Amino acid sequence: MKRRTMMAGLGALGAAATLRGVPAFAQAADLEINLQDVWQAWQAVHLDASGRVVDSIQQNASHSEGQGYGMLLAVTAGDRRAFERMETWTRVNLAVRNDNLLAWRWLPDAPVQVPDINNASDGDLFRAWALLKASRKFSVPEYRETAQRIVMDLVETCIVERPGTGAMSLMLPAAQGFRTPTGFIFNPCYSMPLAMTELATAFDVAPLARAARGAVDLVGNLARDGVVPDWVEVVGNDVRPAQDFSFNAGYEAMRIPLFLIWSGLKQHPAVIRYAEAQARAPKGSAATVIDRKTGQILETGTQAGYRAVAALSLCTARNTVGSALPPFVSEASYYPATLQVMAMIAQAHGAPMCFPL
């Protein structure tokens, strides 16, 4: 299961930049209110009437990642109706395993719409996090119960300890397919520290908290030698390139600084390294693939979502006031559009000084 082989293709209220009538925002206290126009624009393009988040450039597929992300955006915006539609579609179409985790992808035009029932741990993580938040915001106790069951199965199937490191743990990308004869394959961006620690605290699940800390520590160590790559193989204390997986910092890895900033870790070494590379990108673009060893920019993109992650990383790394976060572009494809909304939320929660200029 190699999930993302693709891709080449807001401020203080009085000073919010706009594009096509969609405002940017920055104040965490007013986040739900100020997210409304952005959320409406996002769902008009990427959410169909059934509650399915559509990834148009990936065969119009839906995946647990997109459903989890969409549910998190919906609860953040306070949109109960959209949240319920997404949760219902997800439960009916992706909850086909024998546990409480989701199959990772649904293909609308395939003879078998769910050809692989393996899960994707980040999709399960974000769904559980969204359900926990929704249980509180919408006063639905059943959502909390579902979130707890997901967390317990994630811990049972996807949390592994690193031999020779004491109690350090990490979260595998999926229940199957990522263990090697000597260790395991790890994707740093699947671990969202804030989501993991909030769920661990809510349900008193120490292994998930240890896996959050393990991921933060691991990417910190990786950042000593360059930008943090998309994938690695972990063998005890050794972390090395994973055969047949990207060792560059590409479309997967751009979520690492985003999630760290969102988690309040805006001066983390991985954020600093990523910002250093983005500082070399041509004006009006963002580095989308960065060579791990040399820091050379291999690909760039002009999509607003990629530029938003770059701008947020640069602002936090430099500890400046105000940033170049671009206004939301509703016509963008699923992935950069979703990254952009997440960057807006991360700015409001983790870096309020980085409001758009």
Can you describe this structure?
The protein has about 350 residues and is mainly α. It contains 11 helices and 11 strands. It has a 3-stranded antiparallel β-sheet with strand order 7-8-9, with no helix packed on it. The protein has a two-stranded antiparallel sheet with strand order 1-2. It is globular, with a radius of gyration of 19 Å.
Rg estimate, integer Å:
19 Å
In terms of structural class, how would the helical and strand content be classed?
mainly alpha
Globular, elongated, flat, extended or rod-shaped: what is the shape? Answer: globular
Question: Strand count, sense and closure of the main sheet?
Answer: 3 strands, antiparallel
Strand order of the largest sheet: 7-8-9
Overall mean confidence score, pLDDT: 91
The helix fraction, in percent, is: 40-55%
Q: What's the β-strand tally?
A: 11
Number of helices: 11
Order of helices and strands: EEHEHHEHHEEEHHEEHHEEHH
Strand content: 5-15%
What low-confidence regions span 5 or more consecutive residues with pLDDT below 50? 1-29
Distance between the termini: 41 Å
Keywords:
357 residues, 44% helix, two-stranded antiparallel ribbon, disordered N terminus, 10% strand, mainly alpha, 11 strands, three-stranded antiparallel β-sheet
Layout of strands and helices, then pairs:
Layout lengths: L17 E2 L2 E2 L7 H16 L15 E2 H14 L2 H14 L11 E2 L14 H17 L3 H18 E3 L7 E3 L12 E3 L6 H11 L2 H18 L8 E4 L2 E3 L14 H8 L6 H10 L7 E5 L6 E5 L2 H15 L15 H17 L7
Antiparallel strand pairs: 1-2, 3-4, 5-6, 7-8, 8-9, 10-11
Helix pairs in contact: 1-2, 1-11, 2-3, 2-4, 2-11, 4-5, 4-6, 6-7, 7-9, 8-10, 8-11, 9-10, 10-11
